[in-house]
Predict the structure.
Amino acid sequence: MKLDILAIAAHPDDIELACSGTLASHIDKGYKVGILDLTKGEMGTRGTPEIRMLEADASAKILGLSARENLGFKDIYFKDDLDHQTAIAKVIRKYKPQIVLANAVRDRHPDHGKGASLASHACFISGLRKLETTLDGVPQEVWRPKYVYHYIQNEYIVPDIVVDISDYWETKKDSILAFKSQFHNPDSNEPESFISRPEFLDFIEARSRELGHKINVEFGEGFTVERVAGVKDLFNLI
């Protein structure tokens, strides 16, 4: 299966919080979209890896993803090195996306910035002819995504691009709430975490409204770019 967009995340729910509206909007336009989670978030305060995998599957159905995989890297302890880059490159070569969305270039959680550089390096080496990889024993063709964009997470970063997700805000919210173990639940007996406080989801809505305000729409999601984005028609801009 070939994907148009592959969103790569250090943890399950990174995508949902940061750019699931963008994914939903492109899926609605007919593009094939998938998610690659690098870890199972096993070092998180709440939930278990098994629960989070079930929640990730539930979110995938809500968004209408064509594929979702998890590489099982060690949460917190994964590295931006050749082994990890190659594992991601194999998935990139498998799905051949034109666009890769990756973690924020810097953020409160150290895995996010690390995941950003790891995904970026993996996209580059995936296009190297002398990096040999196989899938099910068959040599893979080289592939380098045309664009790498980094979504904005907890820390505010001035975006280079904002996507209008106004028609997909409810889908985004539903995909976030699929991760029931992670967010506010008054019946939960687990310890409170940074993201389980009731006001955290208010923050996510406020951030989306703030980014939407930048382009005069109700809700938006922001991205930074690795190279200048170009257009052929100025009237294609919002």
User: Anything to note?
Assistant: The radius of gyration is 17 Å. The CA atoms of residues 7 and 220 lie 17 Å apart. The chain has a mean pLDDT of 96. The longest strand covers residues 33-39.
